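Appendix B. Raw example, untouched.
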Amino acid sequence: MTTTRTLPWTPPNTEDIEPLPVGEWWDAISAPTPVADRALELLGSRSGAVIQDDTYGKTYWLIGTDTARSWYLRQIRVLTALTDETTLLGVPPVSWGPEHRTHWRIPLGPNRYLTDTHRLAHALRQAVNDVLGPAPDGRQLCYRCQLPTDEPVPVAIEHSGSVAGATTYACPTHARDHPRDAMTQAAAMRRALDQGRAR
């Protein structure tokens, strides 16, 4: 005798992305896709379902409600129900894959629904350090909007010979618009490789 396991929740819309309120069935964790790529490597098969939004360069994990309200990680956002406003997450139909800009990067399934919050927190902490490097001391000015940001993202490092010079920072909003600096990306990849060898 075979039984079919049903999902505790499925996206109600089968035709298009639907904005759904967080906090009703699940909360969500948002990360920039480069950080999410590293976190997914670290989580391996222990990740639940994951939505990727290539329009905004964000990746979302679904987690249990009220399980991550106290989190504070650079460029990581906890989407949860708020007292005075509704927070919405655009959820694609369960059948949408990478042919759509917003899709299920890890498909929703009976054994892949919510991600364990503690495992996700551990993976994201390491991913933030691997990809973004050490947290800069204090606030920095965004090169584009010229406003101070508590979450500066290094987007370029001046180099002269083998010595690193001035670092250019951006706020999270403008960081994704900055052309990728090959030296900054190489440094992040080197950190990730070194830490992978040290495990």
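End of appendix B.
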